[in-house]
Amino acid sequence: MKKIKYYYNTHTLRYEKLVTPFRVKLLRIFGFISAALVTSALIIWAYTNFFPSALDKESELKYEIVRDNYNTLAAKTKTLQQQMAELEKRDNEVYRSIFEANPLSDSARTKSIEKKKEIAKINLIKNDDLGDEIAKTLDNITARVAYQFESYNGIEKLIRNQETKIASIPAIQPVSNKQLTRIASGFGMRIHPIYGIAKMHSGIDFTAPRGTPIYATGDGVVTTAGGGTGTGNHVIINHGYGYETEYMHMVRVKAGAGQRVKRGEVIGWVGSTGASTAPHLHYEVHINGNAVDPVYFFFNDLNAEQYDRVLKIAATGSAKSFD
Q1: Cα 278 to Cα 257: distance, rounded to the nearest angstrom
Q2: DSSP 3-state assignment of 80?
Q3: Rounded CA gap, 323 and 312, in Å?
Q4: Are residues 204 and 188 in the same domain?
């Protein structure tokens, strides 16, 4: 049963029924609803901020994992970048310097990096800023590695070429001379034994018994093998790289024109053919067509003490040549 309320009316001096106006009822309803909404909003806000949901916790955990993975990858990529920079430095300052090749410019490397996009995007984090950043860094490192491989392939070719060049340099004595007693006349102005006048002696004379083996002093191709007027039986070897050697006055020639010979291979035997006064080998070294003192090329079969002795012998040898 609805409770009825009364109030005392001072004007009429009697009790009258209390009637609440409709407008007041509406205001009260509105106030209640407003208070309920505000209270609900406060409760939701507090719950959201201070009581995270299971989904939020899971998302936060995933984010932390991604962040940790990124930090790990970032540390590794930084190490790779440092190692790559060291390799590029060695490439320019060491390897290419050794083999007399021009260093690679940074612009060439940059151009290659721009052209090469070889690494795939990381699917798990491809839309994530951290993933994009690490992917770009890996793109850069991968391109640099690929370009460096190309550079090292070039250096490998230089190494093979350098090995061939080293083997081609005339670096031993053309006859066996362990006791260092066979150098008779050195490079320079000498009295010619036949004409009796001072003449440029463009090689070194090695005295040796007739039939002593003569060796190629470096790898190369025989361009001349046969008789000559002043040179007698002689051999000329083109070693490449501007080097050429000539061996004169042989009693007999073994090597043939067009033949490829190795350092230390017998190409003939000592004699006294041509303009010669006694059995010996006249040996010359040419660089780019110019005769040079052969004594500076005997470093491959002599130690430091022996080499110093040979230099002195060649400098103080006989004032008269044998040819």
Answers
A1: 26
A2: helix
A3: 21
A4: yes
What the block records as the tokens of 142 is 């991968």
pTM, entire model: 0.55
Task: Give the residue from 136, 168, 200 where a domain finishes.
Answer: 168
- Please give the pLDDT value at position 276: 87
Half-sphere exposure of 102 (CA within 13 A, CB side): 4
On whether both 14 and 101 belong to a single domain, the answer is no
- What single-letter amino acid sits at 253? V
At 237, which CATH number? 2.70.70.10
Helix crossing, 54-90 with 129-168: angle to 10°? Answer: 20
Q: Mean pLDDT, to the nearest integer, of 9-15?
A: 78
- H helix count then E strand count, the chain: 6, 14
pLDDT tens by residue, 134-154? 777 777 777 777 777 777 777
Give the model's confidence band at 287: pLDDT under 50 very low, under 70 low, under 90 confident, else very high. Answer: very high
Judge whether 299 lies within some domain: yes
For residue 175, being part of any structural domain is answered with: no
Contact 165, 157 (CB under 8 A): no
Q: How many CB atoms lie within 10 A of CB 98?
A: 12
pLDDT at residue 323 greater than cutoff 80? no
